[in-house]
């Protein structure tokens, strides 16, 4: 009879964390930041149909990186959570904090239970407050830890480099065009050379405080996004080095048993 | 029976359930929270002579008509309990989502709850699927929700909705009516529901023109409610002293819009002034 090898709990957790981190690192990044009238989400995403950014509730938006089928499950669970809470109590009782807490609990449970593989995802839950000071951005990682981010949050493959870039140039009260340009510049700066990101490689949405309807989430269409990227681009005083055409992203160089042709299993 | 607050966290059901319908999801996690589920708890009601209908206020007349480029729906503001007026400023017409409107007549408490659930159902689907349902899809969804309410309807708590909206694909406004068991019928040009509907519909029959624009359609809708209020005790007329006017919504290619109180006030003033000269309202030629 063979005995299973003993694996120290520390090692087990470390292995699980490495596994999740590796999955997340393969995906393109997402930037979420405050701008003058609300919260902006920009993701590098070449799919028009598979979203990384979406609406959860009236004033709550969601962004994710990692394995598509996993964060899609979490997105739907979040919508159910919010809608059920609003149905049981009142629309005003649905908060980003409660949702972030529920996600944290769920991700934490999955991460530490030996039965399931950890989720290879990172999430952002952003809530538009009544005023800019009340806005909240929560960043959740695969192990269920939550961070309350100030001003902006970045996650995905090259999160650190991109966050540094956003941090250098971020200012309070940027208008929408300036915020979009900052986010796109930062997303394009992850390699050795800055890449050119066109609207077909971007997914963007806003939680717009000026919108009169109760549902504040709005996708920025390709036309609107192109307009925002163009406006005042000449006035930008940081031209940076020569831009190169972005090569098609090379997905998952290492062999991944789950990486077949279905959209659900490719890292986004 | 589990308390609803237990489901406020995210359990594995939230991840596993494979439905885009909010109602179906609630049936999995908290069936007792759904309107139709009260049937079991409310069996006693069925034994009351005459059912439980007298336990809730009743909402009455709703009218809807298509015009060139959209559809309008209007409702009076009265809710009755027997011969008493339960409320004089109740709202019975609502936006269902950004392109459709819904009104209800019958048991007011159940009706408002049903409409709230219907609104949530449409929004939930749109968020999960990333695209809204088609107009006919929305109309069918309302029919199936109504069918689930059949048990309550049998106890005298019948609700009849009226649904209308802008059909993006066909580029026209459409109206759908229902019966209490969930039958769904498309109306061609105009329709009315509620106890004053006989009078409102007769009025519309004489006033309606296919070439109506939005303003004419709003005027005709308010005229027909005025006529219904004259002959049906459960339908309230416009209350000029308190400035309580019919609720009027339109749906067109731009989406839904509630006509402002000021505008409806003007329409009502015009109608009342005209009726001073001609109490039975505008005449239609014999031929």
Automatic annotation (TrEMBL), chain A:
Its pathway, per UniProt, is: Protein degradation; proteasomal Pup-dependent pathway
Which ranges of the sequence are coiled-coil? none
Q: Which gene encodes it?
A: prcA
Q: How does it assemble?
A: The 20S proteasome core is composed of 14 alpha and 14 beta subunits that assemble into four stacked heptameric rings, resulting in a barrel-shaped structure. The two inner rings, each composed of seven catalytic beta subunits, are sandwiched by two outer rings, each composed of seven alpha subunits. The catalytic chamber with the active sites is on the inside of the barrel. Has a gated structure, the ends of the cylinder being occluded by the N-termini of the alpha-subunits. Is capped by the proteasome-associated ATPase, ARC.
- In Swiss-Prot or TrEMBL terms, this protein is called Proteasome subunit alpha
- Superkingdom of this entry's organism? Bacteria
Q: What does this protein do?
A: Component of the proteasome core, a large protease complex with broad specificity involved in protein degradation.
Q: Which GO terms describe its cellular component?
A: cytoplasm; proteasome core complex, alpha-subunit complex
Which GO MF terms are attached to this record?
threonine-type endopeptidase activity
One GO biological process term:
proteasomal protein catabolic process
From TrEMBL, chain B:
State the active site.
60
User: Which stretches of the sequence are propeptide?
Assistant: 1-59
Q: Where in the cell is it found?
A: Cytoplasm
What domain of life does the native source organism fall in? Bacteria
* EC category name: hydrolase
Name the keywords, alphabetized. Answer: Autocatalytic cleavage, Cytoplasm, Hydrolase, Protease, Proteasome, Threonine protease, Zymogen
The pathway where this protein functions is: Protein degradation; proteasomal Pup-dependent pathway
* Keyword Cytoplasm found: yes
Gene3D superfamilies from the UniProt entry: Glutamine Phosphoribosylpyrophosphate, subunit 1, domain 1 (3.60.20.10)
One cellular component term from this protein's GO annotations in UniProt: proteasome core complex, beta-subunit complex
The UniProt catalytic activity note for this protein reads: Cleavage of peptide bonds with very broad specificity
Q: Which GO terms describe its biological process?
A: modification-dependent protein catabolic process; proteasomal protein catabolic process
InterPro entries this protein is in? Ntn_hydrolases_N, Proteasome_sua/b, Proteasome_suB-type, PSB_actinobac
Q: How is its activity regulated?
A: The formation of the proteasomal ATPase ARC-20S proteasome complex, likely via the docking of the C-termini of ARC into the intersubunit pockets in the alpha-rings, may trigger opening of the gate for substrate entry. Interconversion between the open-gate and close-gate conformations leads to a dynamic regulation of the 20S proteasome proteolysis activity.
The enzyme's E.C. designation: 3.4.25.1
Question: Which Gene Ontology molecular-function terms are recorded?
Answer: threonine-type endopeptidase activity
What task does this protein carry out? Component of the proteasome core, a large protease complex with broad specificity involved in protein degradation.
Can you state the subunit structure given in the record? The 20S proteasome core is composed of 14 alpha and 14 beta subunits that assemble into four stacked heptameric rings, resulting in a barrel-shaped structure. The two inner rings, each composed of seven catalytic beta subunits, are sandwiched by two outer rings, each composed of seven alpha subunits. The catalytic chamber with the active sites is on the inside of the barrel. Has a gated structure, the ends of the cylinder being occluded by the N-termini of the alpha-subunits. Is capped by the proteasome-associated ATPase, ARC.
Family membership noted in the UniProt record: Belongs to the peptidase T1B family.
Its name, as the record gives it, is: Proteasome subunit beta
Organism of origin: Microlunatus elymi
């Amino acid at each position: 009879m063979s005995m299973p090898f003993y694996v120290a709990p520390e090692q087990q957790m470390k292995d699980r964390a490495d596994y999740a981190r590796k999955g997340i690192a393969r995906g393109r990044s997402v930037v979420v930041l405050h701008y003058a009238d609300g919260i902006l989400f920009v993701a590098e995403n070449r799919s028009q149909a598979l979203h990384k950014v979406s609406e959860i509730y009236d004033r709550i938006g969601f962004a994710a990186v990692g394995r598509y089928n996993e964060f899609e499950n979490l997105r739907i669970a979040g919508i159910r959570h919010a809608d059920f809470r609003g149905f049981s109590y009142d629309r005003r009782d649905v908060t980003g904090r409660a949702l972030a807490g529920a996600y944290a609990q769920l991700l934490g449970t999955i991460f530490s239970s030996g039965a399931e593989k950890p989720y290879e995802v990172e999430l952002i839950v952003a809530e538009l407050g009544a005023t800019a000071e009340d806005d909240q951005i929560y960043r959740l990682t695969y192990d269920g830890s939550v961070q309350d981010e100030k001003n902006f949050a970045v996650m995905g493959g090259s999160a650190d480099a991109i966050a540094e870039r956003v941090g250098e140039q971020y200012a309070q009260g940027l208008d929408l065009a300036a915020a979009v340009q900052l986010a796109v510049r930062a997303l394009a700066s992850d390699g050795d050379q800055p890449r050119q990101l066109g609207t077909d490689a971007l997914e963007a949405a806003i939680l717009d405080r000026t919108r009169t309807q109760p549902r504040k989430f709005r996708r920025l269409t390709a036309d609107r996004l192109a307009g925002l990227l163009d406006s005042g681009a000449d006035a930008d005083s940081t031209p940076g080095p020569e831009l190169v055409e972005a090569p098609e992203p090379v997905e998952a160089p290492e062999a991944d048993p789950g990486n077949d042709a279905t959209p659900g299993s490719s890292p986004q | 029976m589990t308390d609803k607050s237990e489901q406020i966290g995210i359990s594995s059901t939230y991840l596993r359930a494979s439905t885009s319908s909010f109602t179906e999801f609630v049936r999995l996690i908290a069936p007792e929270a759904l309107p139709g589920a009260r049937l079991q708890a409310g069996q006693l009601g069925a034994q009351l002579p005459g059912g439980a209908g007298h336990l809730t206020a009743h909402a009455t007349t709703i009218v809807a008509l298509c015009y060139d480029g959209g559809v309008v729906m209007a409702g009076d503001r009265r809710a009755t309990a027997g011969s008493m007026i339960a409320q004089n400023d109740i709202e019975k017409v609502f936006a269902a989502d950004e392109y459709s409107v819904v009104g209800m007549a019958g048991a007011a408490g159940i009706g408002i709850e049903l409409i709230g659930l219907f609104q949530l159902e449409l929004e939930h689907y749109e968020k999960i699927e990333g695209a809204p349902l088609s107009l006919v899809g929305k109309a069918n969804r309302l029919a199936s929700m109504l069918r689930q309410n059949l048990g309550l309807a049998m106890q005298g708590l019948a609700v009849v909705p009226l649904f209308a909206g802008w059909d993006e694909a066909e580029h026209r406004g459409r109206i759908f009516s229902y019966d209490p068991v969930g039958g769904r019928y498309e109306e061609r040009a105009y329709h009315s529901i509620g106890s004053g509907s006989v009078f409102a519909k007769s009025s519309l029959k004489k006033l309606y023109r296919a070439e109506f624009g939005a303003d004419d359609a709003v005027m005709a809708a308010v005229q027909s409610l005025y006529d219904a209020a004259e002959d049906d005790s459960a339908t309230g007329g416009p209350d000029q002293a308190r400035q309580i006017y019919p609720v009027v919504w339109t749906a067109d290619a731009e989406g839904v819009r509630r006509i402002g109180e000021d505008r409806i006030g003007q329409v009502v003033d015009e109608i009342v002034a005209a009726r001073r000269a001609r109490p039975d309202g505008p005449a239609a030629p014999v031929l």
